Amino acid sequence: MSSLITEDEISHETDIVWLEDVDRLDYVRQSLDRLPTRRGKPAYHRDGRLVGYALLGPTAKPSRSSGTFRRRVFWLLPHDRDSVPEGLYAKGAPAEAIDPGTLAARVKGRKTRRSEDGPAAAGTRRGTGVTLPL
Q1: Residue 19: inside a domain, yes or no?
Q2: The whole model's pTM is what?
Q3: pLDDT tens-digit map of 40-93
Q4: 53 three-state secondary structure
Q5: CB-based contacts of 107, cutoff 8 Å, min separation 6
Q6: Residue 125 belongs to a domain
Q7: Which residue range forms the structural domain that includes residue 35?
Q8: String of b and e for 62-101 (b: at least 16 CB within 10 Å)?
Q9: Domain for residue 127, yes or no?
Q10: In what helix (H) or strand (E) does residue 116 lie, and over which residues does it extend?
Q11: Which segments show compositional bias classed as Low complexity (predicted)?
């Protein structure tokens, strides 16, 4: 879950690569995955689609036991709000969801009124850098 990601775990990030225009997304799901490389597009093995991923700098160390790197990936499932606006997440969002407008390399992002309540949320100003707390 995104709330369990700590700043220390993402301290070696250098950039976030978006595969889609996230300005149109109320939220993305984020998780830390064990990946074989610091950089490059990771393989995606979930339902739904990969929306973005983090790149790590050269000082990021692999796990001693597995040789993998913990990198953030951002994704959506087929039943998420962008695909099914009146569905399960018409209001509310999954636990690991964050507003992509609050996200940057080394910044874990957070939930906002927009990510929780959808695009009609009162007082949400997208694209201005202003996010409202829950």
Answers
A1: yes
A2: 0.85
A3: 999 998 899 999 999 999 999 999 999 999 999 999 999 999 999 999 999 899
A4: strand
A5: 10
A6: no
A7: 2-117
A8: beeeeeebbbbbbbbbeebbbeeeeeebeeebbebbbbbb
A9: no
A10: helix 113-117
A11: 120-134
